[in-house]
Design brief:
Blueprint lengths: L6 H11 L4 H8 L5 H7 L7 H11 L3 H6 L2 H11 L18 H34 L1
Helix pairs in contact: 2-3
């Protein structure tokens, strides 16, 4: 069963993707247009070719996009193409796990080791000074 493409709904989708309000599209189409006419236009199943060409020029989207875009097919393609691991091969950075507590413990252990080395060096220096004094 062939599903019919709703051109008015496609105009609305693309307009919204471009973040253009109905009033803005009406303004760009000319004096004869207003928000209400755009709303009615977006409810039409089929839009006249010359009007689609005007909308295409204003939104900078090919006429074929309004005539052929089928959301259900797009969703099916996306859902069948992108699975749970769709991007796993795209980024070969490995897993980065930074746990703040573990990092804090590691830094604390390094600090203790440094402190112990400094104490040992201080003791060795004191021994050398005592030998020099005697």
């Amino acid at each position: 069963m062939e599903q019919k493409i709703h051109q008015g709904r496609n105009v609305k989708r693309f307009r919204e993707m471009l973040n253009i309000k109905q009033e803005g599209l009406a303004y760009d189409l000319g004096e004869d247009w207003n928000q209400k006419k755009i709303s009615l236009l977006e409810q039409k199943d089929v839009i006249e070719d010359n009007l689609l060409k005007q909308i295409s020029a204003v939104l900078n989207i090919p006429v074929e996009a309004f005539k052929n875009f089928d959301e259900e097919q797009a969703v099916n393609i996306i859902s069948n193409t992108f699975g749970e691991h769709a991007f796993s091969n795209s980024f070969n950075y490995g897993t980065i796990n930074i746990h703040p507590i573990e990092k804090l413990i590691s830094l604390h252990e390094e600090k203790i080791a440094l402190y112990e080395r400094m104490l040992k060096e201080k003791d060795e220096m004191m021994l050398r000074l005592e030998k020099l004094i005697k």
